[in-house]
Structures are given as structure tokens and as C-alpha cells.
Design a protein that fits this description.
The chain has about 80 residues and is an all-alpha fold. It contains 2 helices and no strands.
Length: about 80
């Protein structure tokens, strides 16, 4: 069997920077609001409404935060 030679070619560096969102507690609040709403559906509709308000408020804030982060990115990104 002939011997195989492995050649290592240099890997090109990434042409774009990777953007990662900053840390946020909002996903946890959305999940908690949804959980409260689901428990409220079983026990009390007032509790369900409170859970939905918490979830919707956190979702709105999360979307605004994300839009602001995206607006700060360079145009060529």
C-alpha cells in the first residue's frame, strides 16, 4: 500500500466579525411569565392575565433591546 502524505493548508481567517448578543435576563422572565400564565389557566384567570402581562412586557422589552443592538452594528455587517 502506498504511503499517503497529509498536507496542511493554512486556514483563511474569518472575513466577518461574529456578533453575539449581550447577556440578558429577559428570556428567563418570559419563561416565568408563561409558566405563571399556564398555572393561572388551571387555578385562576386573574393569575393567567398577570402571567401574560409579564410575558408580553418582557417580550416587548427583549425586542427593543435586540433592535437597539442590531442598530449599533456597522452597515457592512
Amino acid at each position: 500500500m502506498p504511503e499517503q502524505r497529509i498536507t496542511h493548508e493554512p486556514i483563511e481567517s474569518a472575513s466577518e466579525q461574529v456578533h453575539l448578543p449581550g447577556p440578558s435576563f429577559l428570556p428567563v422572565i418570559v419563561a416565568a411569565g408563561i409558566a405563571i400564565a399556564l398555572v393561572g389557566v388551571v387555578h385562576n384567570l386573574v393569575l393567567a392575565a398577570i402571567g401574560l402581562l409579564i410575558a408580553i412586557g418582557a417580550i416587548i422589552r427583549w425586542v427593543r433591546e435586540t433592535r437597539s443592538e442590531i442598530a449599533d452594528l456597522p452597515l457592512d455587517h
